[in-house]
Amino acid sequence: MTRLLSDQQAARAEKFDLNTERVEALLQRAGKEVEEGLLPAAQIAIARQGEVVFQHSYGTARDDSLTCIFSATKAITSAAAWLLFQNGDLAEDEVVADIVPEFGTNEKDHITVGQLFTHTAGFPTAPFAPLDWDDRGKRYGRFGKWRLNWQPGSRFEYHPSSSMWVIAEIIERRSGVSYRDFVRSRILQPLQLDDLYVGLPASETVRALPCVYVGDAMTEQEYTNLGMPVPPETEVTESAILSFNKPEVQAVGVPGGGGFATASALTLFYQALLTGGNAHATLWPMETLLDARRVRSGDMTDMMFKKPANRALGLIISGDSSRSFRGFGKTNSPEAFGHNGAGGQLVWADPATGISFTYLTPGHDRNSVRQGSRGVAISSLAASCVND
Length: 388
Fold this sequence. Notes:
Layout: H1 7-15, H2 20-30, H3 32-35, E1 41-48, E2 51-59, E3 67-70, H4 73-86, H5 96-99, H6 113-118, H7 136-145, H8 162-175, H9 179-188, E4 196-198, E5 212-214, H10 220-225, H11 238-242, H12 247-250, E6 259-261, H13 263-275, H14 286-292, E7 316-317, E8 337-338, E9 346-350, E10 355-360, E11 363-365, H15 368-383
Parallel strand pairs: 5-11
Antiparallel strand pairs: 1-2, 1-10, 3-6, 4-6, 7-8, 8-9, 9-10
């Protein structure tokens, strides 16, 4: 087996008190599916103390390649809203329809802002075509047509994109600038995260790795044999995922799933979520960060695994021994937080070690169990890289 960690990288890992043998094990595991020919490409990065300690690219990826991070975008959208919360420009208990009147139809007039972040708002399957976002008439028409699936606040069910469209609208109305401009001017530019985009410029599309589907989907019998329910059908279809290969969709900056990033840029963003900023800017006081990480979903469980959802203000919290069902590694601390994305994108930070970690791939495995197992294995190795 060829060693992947160079002498220079090993010296840097030791400087940040990372165990080089564990780092090597992580590098080997993260590239396994690319080496075997299942995935076309992947990137990983670990950061600590505000710096990228190491990064590695596999297959067709380069270190500056951009990958669509899908639902990992939700943490960026949420962090933008935190700026409004901390300045007193927005409150969790506000009624959404008081801010966006067009939304308050079909018994949606009592949903609160906080419920949008915790996936308890009651409209998980509301359709929204990404290209409708820049047409205000179509945007408001969509909001008005949406109907409730269940009583807001009564249960948890993941909203793949619907609630984040509304949060983006709230950001626009309370800030007076477009959602994309707000994220860029208030977060990405101050932190100098030049390789993280919510709304990909045409000049950068050449760096975007094309999304592809690989492998075969599991059958209903295979799920039954594992004692697992068949995942429910959602708006996250193959055609929806593959639409993010189109420059016009990439440019929208879908707030619940349309960000593009390098692994290094995204893991540096999570370093800022650990401390409030970086050497260039401080954006969030620790009070804001700690409150954002506070679990708000109580004992509500997810539909798939019947485990506590552990939803905070747009983040997922690692929590108890069921953390691997929430997209974390078995060795993450209970305080770890993050938000993964479709196709096996892994993004988290762990206050217990100060590490932030990102794994990105444009290859979406149709075998959801294999994809999930890969994520747990990689995150478990990443979380244990710090010397004991």
